[in-house]
């Protein structure tokens, strides 16, 4: 794995865009047994503006995670930011005092049969920290301690490279007007067009027109996809829940 790690570091150093970096990361982590990859980036130590990128998770789960705002109660990213060591998802009850909503989240996660995985804390300059989740399916597929340490080194190197490439995000935010951003924010909170019209004191027809424009600019065809793109590229900034006690 040391040879692979050295090559990976060379590869990411050559990445010119964040998308190219993401592709290098996916290739590396999949080659080392990860079936699913989730990367959360917390700019300047704040929860506002968090970006989320995923690969390999069921589409229904990703939509559920975003649409129902499960990122508010997912304890893994918050806990990872407080730790310097990798931990297994299945060990979280032993290392954190979860509140009821967080326990409910972990129980629901198990019902989706996503298996076990690693939570990897990431640290960057100026508090640009992050979290990498690697899902391996069954516990028999989990790497040993040495393998987990190597994956953490690769993830940390990738995160630092990403911090250097922040000006070239995975998807450049669309050129949205202030009103379009407002409407996208309400869509991400699950509001209907009629409710948004009441909130903004504009006509339903006007909201319908804005939503059609949003779909065109974001290259999506439904509200859930618009919310995912909005949150994933920081056009919409979710307010996350409280830290793990």
From TrEMBL:
SUPFAM superfamilies: C-terminal effector domain of the bipartite response regulators, Pheromone-binding domain of LuxR-like quorum-sensing transcription factors. Signal peptide: none annotated. InterPro entries: Sig_transdc_resp-reg_C-effctor, TF_LuxR_autoind-bd_dom, TF_LuxR_autoind-bd_dom_sf, Tscrpt_reg_LuxR_C, WH-like_DNA-bd_sf. PROSITE patterns: HTH_LUXR_1 (PS00622), HTH_LUXR_2 (PS50043). It comes from the Bacteria. Keywords: DNA-binding, Transcription, Transcription regulation. CDD domains: LuxR_C_like. GO terms for biological process: regulation of DNA-templated transcription. Residues 169-234 form the HTH luxR-type domain. GO terms for molecular function: DNA binding. It holds the Pfam family Autoind_bind. This is Regulatory protein SdiA. It comes from Pontivivens insulae. The gene is sdiA.
């Amino acid at each position: 794995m040391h040879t692979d790690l050295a090559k990976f570091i060379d590869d990411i150093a050559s990445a010119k865009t964040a998308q190219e970096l993401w592709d290098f990361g996916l290739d590396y982590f999949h080659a080392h047994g990860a079936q699913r990859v989730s990367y959360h980036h917390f700019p300047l130590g704040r929860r506002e503006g968090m970006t989320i990128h995923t690969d390999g998770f069921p589409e229904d789960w990703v939509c559920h995670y975003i649409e129902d705002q499960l990122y508010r109660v997912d304890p893994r990213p918050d806990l990872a930011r407080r730790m310097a060591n990798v931990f297994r998802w299945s060990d979280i009850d032993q290392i954190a005092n979860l509140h009821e909503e967080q326990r409910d989240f972990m129980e629901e996660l198990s019902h989706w049969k996503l298996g076990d995985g690693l939570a990897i804390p990431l640290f960057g300059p100026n508090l640009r920290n992050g979290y990498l989740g690697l899902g391996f399916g069954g516990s028999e597929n989990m790497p040993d301690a040495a393998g987990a340490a190597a994956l953490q080194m690769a993830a940390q190197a990738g995160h630092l490279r990403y911090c250097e490439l922040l000006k070239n995000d995975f998807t450049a935010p669309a050129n949205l007007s202030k009103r379009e951003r407002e409407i996208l924010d309400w869509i991400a909170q699950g509001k209907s067009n009629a409710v948004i019209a009441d909130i903004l004191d504009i006509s339903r027809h006007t909201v319908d027109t804005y939503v059609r424009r949003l779909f065109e600019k974001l290259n999506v065809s439904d509200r859930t996809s618009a919310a995912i793109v909005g949150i994933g590229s920081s056009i919409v900034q979710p307010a996350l829940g409280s830290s793990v006690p």
